[in-house]
């Protein structure tokens, strides 16, 4: 009966496929020539056998795979073409006319490697891809030489927005893929490093250790990660995970000099101190009247003396210095028939340009693989990274900005003085550097081991156990002689540590089958369980008896803010993905993931997130076959749903809050209801997305690329909704609210010139995203308090709008507003001559209108040259720097040198100095537009003769400049870090000149 | 091969060179004009030479003559410094001129004349440099509460305040925390209302608008605070019109709205000099002053500016009219009969022009 059923199934399949073939006219008679026996050996360039290579008779799609020793044997009808292929290598073809023995040496094919895309739990060739995924190769990562690989994504991957918190070494960066989905939860994508999912970012990875970064953007691609895929997925494959055969040693080393560039123009800098003095006079006269200039605090005697002698101090240039970036990386791989290994070590030292700022990273990765037979393989991969960050002192740079050039850091003995300006509260930045320590010691480790069994052709069972561990220890010491302690208050120390563990067990079943003619089925099934634990503690001590750094907090007079925590969460998952390709024309991908999380309550813990994608290789249709100008043309249409599990582990709980009550000299702890009520009915925020894409290649692929249009909707946003104070609760978490993101992404690759000696190619990316709130609380009403408006982006600037400066001809009108000529002029929306909140409007949103990137690569014989451009156009940001240094009129501090209004220079940009203008907050509204040349690299590769003489396989030396040009109206240093925290993160923008070598032994 | 290396090196150097370009710095010495020193010296010497010094009406007090002589010597010293090339910037010369002009004005203001008690007159108080003020006494009630109004008539001439905040009337304490009380004051181009907010430290609710420049004319000012309003809690009315309105937007770090802090540390209420920061001064005329324990509306204010008070109004805390010369400048009873004011330092009762 069972046998009959099998026959029936097979028969139905045959009939169905035959009908389909007949309809499309694809049915062709098979060659019935006489068969001959062909045997052979497939090896790589180093002479190692390649097991698992496909040996296929082209016409009839019949084939075998090479055995453990790389050998094969196959019967081939005479006159047919035998195709030998292996992923990552150039396919070779032989016409078979007689019985023969073939010795095939496969060549690595970089282009082929580029065409392989990692899609999560597997990889596909680009031609079979139905989702929107972009890849950054190892060569790109190494070429641009960023210490944090996250930064490399900017301008290289369309739809990705990297936000830097600061330009201090080791600063954090965040990524947004296709805009913001969530209002209250995280918008950070899921990072999957060698199969281990986490939210730890990429800072701890060395670019030299990465094989590729694949960014999964649309929901049909990210649905494979189900409840964690809503914000996109960044998949990192390290070199340690891809074992090569043969011995190979690669060394990359570079030394760079960082120098501050685009130092903001402060009044009186670069030795032009009189400019500042003129400003000071204008400020005091306007603000306090002409007579104020005779006050003793207008200028101290020391300041007057320096002015007389022309002794001016350029604080920013003196407090900063050139610094070094050193990078060394060595990577070795090798193996034999049964085993292969890889081993890498990396060291990076990135010194800061101010004080003790610095970041150093030591990385090590190991990959081991052992093949017991062609059916059983086992392997181990580990990645370890130790990161030490010296964040530098807080308040150093801001003081250097504030202190005017007529102030000196030295006392009468030539030593650093603590108080450098008796009339001001700002202390000496050099002393601040010495007495404020802020450090982070972080350690990351990924370990994974797998066993893979291939019981039959096309079927693979893989079980991988992975463990991720990271710790983060932050310490701060604030000495007495700091800005914070004013030279009189006792020192303070703070320590905070966190440990995160993540255990993942993935069981993956892969089945690949080619049947009939040009029908391919690729199925992946997954059962996965994950548990992550998080714990940490913190304490603060006041009044340390000696300079104990941030250690020995127990010696403090008072220990406070002691806290500790522990929480854990778990995720169970079942996933199935089927990719069916027919005639290399039609591709259908179905993905379904069923996740269960401990973060939600029973009844809502499990969710199913499906996706469906269709690909149509139009080029392979008959009507385009003969169009030689078109090399490839593929349409992709997809729809998928994914969730956001990056929510608080306790978001459904109703918790008791801790309160401390004092009774006399002692205290006791009490617990009471917290302000927010938990909600058992909470569900995941769910994102559904439609994506239409077109991949193309024209004129022998001289022009190739892709265009994607998407529409994404996120429903069931989790809000802490205010409720009437009933039963002691003020708010409750609820799934309400909807946001949308719609956009276009374009990727374009062109080969502009290609001849024997000269080659020029360009890579261009463009993305545009429009983010909107569709609904908030189910009533389509705005939330004015939180500045959330229906139909507007999640983040907006809702404020008065500057329309210029009151000019002399407008004096009477200005007076109606109680303002003077030279004051900031804002729009009176309701025309009532009273500027208040009724005149607030949405003046902009801190989201770029569009972004674009361009990489140009030239090569002439052995010389290569490349430059990377990045443009971010539009967007309005609230910037503390611009506000503080243009709006504040402190009588003793310095200010940015911008176009202030004066009677002789009736500017429309900035108010008159000392004019006491109101509504100065509008000066913090700055455009985010900039164009950057991120990197220029000039390299020279030694020729074969020279390499041979030096005992090398390949070698290249290069020089590069990072951040050589930035075009922007932003008055701060780097328009990419608009909005950085002035006290703790303020940084200078580095331009880095690097010399380096890449050697391959 | 050598040429290739040279090319590489040259390109690298070029990139370093373009980075090192710097703007030019102007270090040329500046020319200092001494003209105003000349002019003022001449004026001061002429004034002193022609003035009648004595105690009678129509003469100048001897102490003012001595003060003017001292200022002449200071100006001569400055002139010598200028000639010796010790001034780097023009403001150093200008400072001497400003001081001289002030000395001239003070001397001219010291011309003596006496009006009899009960004579209709205007009161000018020379508050600049803390030389004069009106003290209204010390009472916790002056601090107000969740609703109060401060009403006054003020007149001033050009240069009526200098060097920072010019305080008109206040009971204010910013010397300790939180900041408490209220103040009507001038800064820059603006007439402002400032009230202490808390409990967070160093917070004030403050707003202002360009002060009227109708020098020599009376202005009717009313500052109104009303905590019960959702917006526009702090208002200023000028001559019967809304001058400005400010909503309380003072939040602490935890997002908690701060509230007005009545003065509980220094109950003094003064005009023309701030009771705690005594550098905040101004010179001007005051005609009437009233403190109300309620928040007056625009309609109320329109009526009040054209009417008098009896002193028995229920929400009136205090009210003074400085419209005629009192019997005793050191003991001026208010209309409620509950408070006493005194005029301290440099002031003058001026005859009415009309």
UniProtKB/TrEMBL annotation, chain A:
Signal peptide per UniProt: none
Q: Which GO terms describe its cellular component?
A: cell outer membrane
Q: Which keywords label this protein?
A: Cell outer membrane, Membrane, TonB box, Transmembrane, Transmembrane beta strand, Transport
Q: Which domain of life is it from?
A: Bacteria
Subcellular location, in the record's words? Cell outer membrane
Q: Which InterPro entries match?
A: Beta-barrel_TonB (IPR000531), Beta-barrel_TonB_sf (IPR036942), CarboxyPept-like_regulatory (IPR008969), Plug_dom (IPR012910), Plug_dom_sf (IPR037066), TonB-dep_OMP_SusC/RagA (IPR023996), TonB-dep_OMP_SusC/RagA_CS (IPR023997), TonB-dep_rcpt-like (IPR039426)
Q: Where in the numbering of this chain does the TonB-dependent receptor-like beta-barrel domain appear?
A: 452-962
Q: Pfam families, alphabetically? A: CarbopepD_reg_2 (PF13715), Plug (PF07715), TonB_dep_Rec_b-barrel (PF00593)
This protein's membrane topology, according to the annotation, is: Multi-pass membrane protein
Indicate the principal place this protein occupies in or around the cell: membrane
Q: Is this entry keyworded Transport?
A: yes
Asked whether the UniProt record includes Cytoplasm among its keywords, one would answer no
Start and end residues of each TonB-dependent receptor plug domain: 126-233
- NCBIfam families noted in UniProt: OMP_RagA_SusC, SusC_RagA_signa
Record-stated family: Belongs to the TonB-dependent receptor family.
Q: What is this protein called?
A: TonB-linked outer membrane protein, SusC/RagA family
From TrEMBL, chain B:
Kindly give the InterPro entries that the UniProt entry links to this protein: ConA-like_dom_sf
Name the Gene Ontology molecular function terms of this record: carbohydrate binding; hydrolase activity, hydrolyzing O-glycosyl compounds
Q: Which GO terms describe its biological process?
A: carbohydrate metabolic process
Query: Which Pfam families does the protein's record reference?
Result: Laminin_G_3 (PF13385)
> rRNA-binding as a keyword?
no
According to the UniProt entry, the coiled-coil residues are: none
Q: Which UniProt keywords apply?
A: Lectin
Entry-linked SUPFAM superfamilies: Concanavalin A-like lectins/glucanases
Name of protein: Concanavalin A-like lectin/glucanases superfamily protein
């Amino acid at each position: 009966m069972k046998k009959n059923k099998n026959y029936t199934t097979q028969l139905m399949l045959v009939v169905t496929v035959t009908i389909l073939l007949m309809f499309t006219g694809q049915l062709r008679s098979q060659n019935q020539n006489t068969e001959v026996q062909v045997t052979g050996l497939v090896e790589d360039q180093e002479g190692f056998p390649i097991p698992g290579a496909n040996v296929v008779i082209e016409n009839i799609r019949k084939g075998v795979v090479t055995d453990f020793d790389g050998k094969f044997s196959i019967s081939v009808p005479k006159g047919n073409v035998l195709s030998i292929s292996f992923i990552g290598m150039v396919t070779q073809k032989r016409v078979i006319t007689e019985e023969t023995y073939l010795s095939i040496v496969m060549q690595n094919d970089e282009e082929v490697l580029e065409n392989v895309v990692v899609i999560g739990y597997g990889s596909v060739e680009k031609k079979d891809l139905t989702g929107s995924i972009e890849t950054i190769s190892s060569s790109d990562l190494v070429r641009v030489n960023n210490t944090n690989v996250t930064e490399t994504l900017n301008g290289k991957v369309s739809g990705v927005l990297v936000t830097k918190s600061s330009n201090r070494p080791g600063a954090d960066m965040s990524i947004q893929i296709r805009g913001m989905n969530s209002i209250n939860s995280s918008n950070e994508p899921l990072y999957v490093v060698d199969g281990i999912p986490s939210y730890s970012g990429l800072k701890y990875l060395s670019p030299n250790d990465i094989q590729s970064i694949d960014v999964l953007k649309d929901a049909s691609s990210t649905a494979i990660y189900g409840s964690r895929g809503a914000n996109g997925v960044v998949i990192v494959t390290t070199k340690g995970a891809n074992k090569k055969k043969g011995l190979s040693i690669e060394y990359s080393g570079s030394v760079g000099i960082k120098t501050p560039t685009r130092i903001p123009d402060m009044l009186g800098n670069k030795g032009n101190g009189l400019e500042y003095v003129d400003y000071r006079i204008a400020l005091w006269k306007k603000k306090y009247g002409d007579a104020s200039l005779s006050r003793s605090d207008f200028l101290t005697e020391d300041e007057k003396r320096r002015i007389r002698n022309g002794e001016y101090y350029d604080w920013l240039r003196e407090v900063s210095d050139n610094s070094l970036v050193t990078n060394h990386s060595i990577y070795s791989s090798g193996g034999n028939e049964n085993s292969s290994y890889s081993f890498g070590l990396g060291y990076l030292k990135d010194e800061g340009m101010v004080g003790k700022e610095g970041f150093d990273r030591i990385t090590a990765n190991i990959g081991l693989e052992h093949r017991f037979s062609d059916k059983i393989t086992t392997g181990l991969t580990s990645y370890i990274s130790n990161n030490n960050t010296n964040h530098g002192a807080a308040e150093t740079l801001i003081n250097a900005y504030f202190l005017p050039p007529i102030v000196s850091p030295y006392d009468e003995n030539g030593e650093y003085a603590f108080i450098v300006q008796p009339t001001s509260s700002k202390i000496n930045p050099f002393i601040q550097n010495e007495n404020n320590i802020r450090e982070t010691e972080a350690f990351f480790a990924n370990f994974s081991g797998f066993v893979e069994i291939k019981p039959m052709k096309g079927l693979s069972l893989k079980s991988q156990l992975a463990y991720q561990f990271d710790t983060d220890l932050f310490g701060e010491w604030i000495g007495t002689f700091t800005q914070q302690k004013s030279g009189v208050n006792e020192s303070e120390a703070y320590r905070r540590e966190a440990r995160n563990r993540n255990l993942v067990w993935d069981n993956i079943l892969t089945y690949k089958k080619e049947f009939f003619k040009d029908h391919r089925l690729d199925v992946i099934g997954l059962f996965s369980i994950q548990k992550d634990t998080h714990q940490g503690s913190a304490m603060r001590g006041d009044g340390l008896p000696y300079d104990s750094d941030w250690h020995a907090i127990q010696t403090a007079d008072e220990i406070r803010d002691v806290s500790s925590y522990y929480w854990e969460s778990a995720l169970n998952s079942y996933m199935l993905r089927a990719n069916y390709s027919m005639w290399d024309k039609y591709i259908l991908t179905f993905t379904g993931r069923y996740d269960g999380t401990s973060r939600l309550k029973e009844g809502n813990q499990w969710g199913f997130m499906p996706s469906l994608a269709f690909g149509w290789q139009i080029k392979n249709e008959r009507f385009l076959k003969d169009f030689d100008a078109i090399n490839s043309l593929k349409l992709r249409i997809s729809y998928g749903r994914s969730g956001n599990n990056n929510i608080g582990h306790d978001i459904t709980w109703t918790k008791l809050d801790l309160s401390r009550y004092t009774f006399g000299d002692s205290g006791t702890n009490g617990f009471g209801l917290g302000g927010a009520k938990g909600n058992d009915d909470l569900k995941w925020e769910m994102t559904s997305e439609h994506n239409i894409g077109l991949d193309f290649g024209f004129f022998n692929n001289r022009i190739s690329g892709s265009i994607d249009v998407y529409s994404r909707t996120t429903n069931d946003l989790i809000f802490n909704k205010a409720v009437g104070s009933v039963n002691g609760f003020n708010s409750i978490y609820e799934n309400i609210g909807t946001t949308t993101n719609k956009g276009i992404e374009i990727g374009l690759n062109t080969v502009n010139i290609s001849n024997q000696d000269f080659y020029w190619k360009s890579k261009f990316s463009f993305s545009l995203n429009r983010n909107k709130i569709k609904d908030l609380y189910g009533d389509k009403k705005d939330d004015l308090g939180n500045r959330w408006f229906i139909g507007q982006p999640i983040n907006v600037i809702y404020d008065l709008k500057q329309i210029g400066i009151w000019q002399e001809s407008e004096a009477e009108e200005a007076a109606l507003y109680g303002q003077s000529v030279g004051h900031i002029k804002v729009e009176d929306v309701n025309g009532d001559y009273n500027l208040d909140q009724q005149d607030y409007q949405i003046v902009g949103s801190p989201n770029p209108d569009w972004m674009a990137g361009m990489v140009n690569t030239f090569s002439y014989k052995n010389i290569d040259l490349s430059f990377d451009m990045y443009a971010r156009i539009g967007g309005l940001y609230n910037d503390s720097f611009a506000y503080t240094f243009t709006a504040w009129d402190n009588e003793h501090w310095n200010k940015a040198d911008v176009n202030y209004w004066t009677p002789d220079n009736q500017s429309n940009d900035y108010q008159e100095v000392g004019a006491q203008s109101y509504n100065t907050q509008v000066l913090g509204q700055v455009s985010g537009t900039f164009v950057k040349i991120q990197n220029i690299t000039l390299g020279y590769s030694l020729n074969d003769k020279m390499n041979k003489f030096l005992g090398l396989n390949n070698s290249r030396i290069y020089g590069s400049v990072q951040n050589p040009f930035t075009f922007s109206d932003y008055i701060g240093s780097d328009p990419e870090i608009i909005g950085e925290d002035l006290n703790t993160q303020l940084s200078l923008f580095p331009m880095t000149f690097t010399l380096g070598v890449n050697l391959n032994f | 091969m050598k040429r290739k290396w040279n090319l590489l090196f040259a390109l690298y150097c070029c990139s370093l060179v373009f980075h090192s370009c710097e703007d030019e710095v102007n270090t040329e010495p500046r020319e200092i004009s001494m003209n105003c020193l000349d002019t003022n010296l001449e004026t001061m010497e002429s004034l002193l030479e022609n003035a009648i010094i004595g105690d009678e009406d129509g003469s100048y007090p001897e102490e003012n003559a001595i003060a003017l002589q001292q200022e002449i010597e200071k100006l001569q010293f400055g002139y010598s410094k200028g000639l010796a090339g010790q001034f780097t910037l023009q403001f150093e010369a200008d400072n001497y001129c400003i001081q001289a002009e002030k000395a001239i004005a003070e001397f001219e203001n010291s011309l003596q004349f006496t009006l009899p008690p009960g004579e209709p007159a205007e009161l000018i108080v020379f508050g600049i440099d803390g030389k004069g003020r009106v003290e209204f006494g010390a009472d916790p009630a002056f601090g107000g509460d969740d609703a109060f109004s401060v009403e006054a008539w003020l007149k001033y001439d050009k240069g009526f305040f200098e060097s920072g905040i010019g305080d008109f009337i206040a009971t204010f304490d910013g010397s300790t925390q939180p900041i408490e009380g209220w103040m009507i004051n001038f800064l820059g181009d603006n007439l402002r209302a400032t009230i202490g907010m808390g409990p967070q430290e160093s917070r004030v609710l403050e707003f202002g608008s360009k002060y009227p420049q109708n020098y020599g004319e009376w202005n009717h000012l009313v500052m109104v605070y009303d905590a019960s309003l959702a917006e526009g809690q702090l208002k200023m009315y000028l001559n019967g019109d809304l001058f400005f309105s400010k909503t309380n937007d003072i939040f602490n770090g935890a997002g908690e709205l701060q509230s007005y802090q009545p003065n509980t540390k220094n109950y003094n209420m003064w005009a023309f000099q701030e009771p705690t920061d005594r550098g905040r001064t101004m010179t001007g005329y005051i005609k009437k002053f009233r403190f109300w324990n309620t928040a007056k509306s625009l309609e109320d204010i329109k009526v009040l500016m054209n009417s008098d008070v009896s002193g028995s109004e229920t929400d009136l805390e205090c009210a003074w009219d400085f419209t005629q010369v009192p019997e005793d400048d050191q003991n001026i009873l208010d209309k409620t009969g509950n408070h006493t004011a005194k005029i301290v330092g440099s002031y003058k009762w001026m005859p009415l022009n009309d």
